[in-house]
Write a structure and sequence with these properties.
Growth Hormone, Chain: A
Length: about 400
């Protein structure tokens, strides 16, 4: 399918040359932010036993975190597009700090739920504005910078379960408070980035005709492409939610591994996502983001179909392949969407990050209920067919600069 969707996005005002120290700072802040957030699913086996939770309640905790983030991210992006807030990232990280302390000191399921919501709120503030600052500092190399930014977050997500296995599993729920120092470091770093952003004199975004928030109507081909992107995001988010939220339980129930071993294997899966994102970003610059979207979703199908029927060794190997292949989907989809809908970086980034979190939240909650009604193995047998949705990538237009 071929269409001219939109003119290429123009550079954001303020910075013409790449500001790599700012890019590095944002990537590191993304690393710290997502590392902290990854502690929540990593402690699920611990709090499930401590509070006698069922899978449905575990899914609701994921819903509290991800649904809060998904609802607010587009709103935050739209507001900051029109009213730049250089220090909003620091404020968002403050919400994450309060949520983390609640999780560490919680004495009831309700406190865990509120803590998860506050961490989700911090994420809703961080991602759209951080994408805008990274894009401003990219000096035109938007694809490369977005890949680096995404790798920062995925690296943090990978390290979170490892730290949970090393620290939280042996020392208990209260040891989560030790990670408050990480959040404070991120707040200091983001304050410095905020000063840089303020010094650039960020201007209010003016939506372009035909873009998100613009005055003209979107072309039918663009509307179809956006709908396809959302459906592809569902496929990717739902399957990823099955692994990030329930992989540890699957390993414990099916192969009788220890909690610490399951967390270490979750870390291996998340590291595979980091490597896959790097490779996908490199190949995307050469073969195109549309091709990467094809490969990153549909290419995982043979491995997801086999996964529920193999032994522990093959399970580890297949999840590494699945994580590596599917991990490049989101950076490719986001940059593709920013090119398809130029004009409002924050709103577009917030919308697609929000869709990711929201679909992941709904999927985690639904999969938790299915696991309670059937078994955790049934969940993986059902999810195995989700990558078939990748066939819809055929409807995506080829965008030419």
């Amino acid at each position: 399918m071929r269409t001219t969707a939109a003119a290429p996005a123009t550079s954001l005002p303020g910075v013409r040359e790449a500001a790599y120290p700012i890019v590095a700072a944002l990537c590191f802040a993304h690393f710290l932010n997502d590392m902290t957030q990854a502690l929540l699913p990593a402690i699920y086996p611990i709090i499930k036993q401590t509070y006698a939770l069922d899978f449905g309640q575990i899914g609701l905790l994921t819903l509290a975190f991800q649904f809060t983030a998904s609802l607010l991210q587009p709103v935050v992006g739209m507001i900051t597009d029109r009213h730049p807030m250089p220090y909003s990232l620091t404020a968002g990280m403050g919400s994450t700090l309060v949520g983390l302390m609640l999780l560490a000191t919680a004495s009831s399921y309700g406190m865990l739920f509120i803590g998860a919501m506050l961490i989700g709120f911090g994420s809703s503030v961080f991602h759209p504005e951080a994408v805008r600052m990274a894009r401003m500092a990219a000096g035109g190399r938007h694809g490369l910078v977005q890949s680096l930014f995404q790798v920062g977050g995925q690296s943090g997500s990978a390290l979170g379960p490892l730290l949970a296995a090393i620290i939280v599993a042996p020392f208990g729920q209260h040891s989560l408070a030790w990670f408050s120092s990480v959040v404070l470091v991120a707040m200091v770093l983001l304050t410095w980035v905020g000063r840089w952003y303020a010094a650039q004199g960020p201007k209010r975004a003016t939506a372009k005709a035909g873009s998100l928030g613009g005055g003209a109507k979107l072309a039918p081909g663009v509307i179809l492409a956006v709908m396809v992107l959302f459906v592809l995001m569902f496929s990717k988010s739902a399957y990823t939610a099955s692994l990030t939220s329930y992989y540890t339980f699957y390993l414990i129930d099916r192969f009788q591994v220890s909690v610490q071993t399951s967390q270490l294997l979750l870390f291996v899966f998340l590291i595979a996502q980091v490597v896959g994102a790097l490779i996908g970003g490199y190949l995307g610059d050469r073969i195109g983001r549309r091709a990467i979207i094809w490969i990153s979703i549909l290419g995982a199908l043979p491995f997801t179909l086999i996964l529920p029927w193999v032994n522990l060794g093959w399970t580890i190997a297949l999840t590494i392949l699945i994580g590596g292949i599917m991990s490049s989907a989101f950076p490719a989809i986001l940059v593709y969407a920013l090119e398809l809908l130029p004009g409002n970086v924050g709103m577009t980034a917030g919308l697609f990050y929000g869709v990711t979190f929201g679909l992941g939240a709904l999927s985690a909650a639904a999969l938790g209920q299915i696991a309670d009604w059937t078994s955790i193995e049934t969940v993986y047998q059902m999810c195995a067919f989700l990558p078939l949705i990748g066939l819809l990538a055929w409807f995506l237009p080829k965008i030419e600069a």
